[in-house]
Amino acid sequence: MGVAERVEGTAHTPVDTTVLEGSIADTLESYADEVRADMILIATHGREGMRRLFGGSVADALIRHTTLPV
Q: Is 3 exposed, middle or buried (0-12, 13-18, 19+ CB in 10 A)?
């Protein structure tokens, strides 16, 4: 059973799956605009310190660049 199937079966909410290519934060923001999303939900690892500095954070990038709630 895939993640979308588990979510749909548990929450009784339709789930669409889309595969996109590109910079993660930019692509997510563009897709959210395209589908007229109300918000962006994203999980995070909660990295800190040097790992966060050099690895970047998709959630941080989205928060800084999108007008949607993240």
A: exposed
8 phi and psi angles, rounded to 5 deg: -60, -45
What is the reported pLDDT for 23?
A: 87
The pair of three-digit structure tokens given for residue 1, joined into one six-digit string: 């059973």
DSSP characters over 3-58: HHHHHHHHH----------S-HHHHHHHHHHHTT-S----------HHHHHHH--H
Helix, strand, or coil (residue 62):
helix
Q: What is the mean pLDDT of each run of 10 residues along the chain (70 residues)?
A: 52 75 89 90 70 66 86
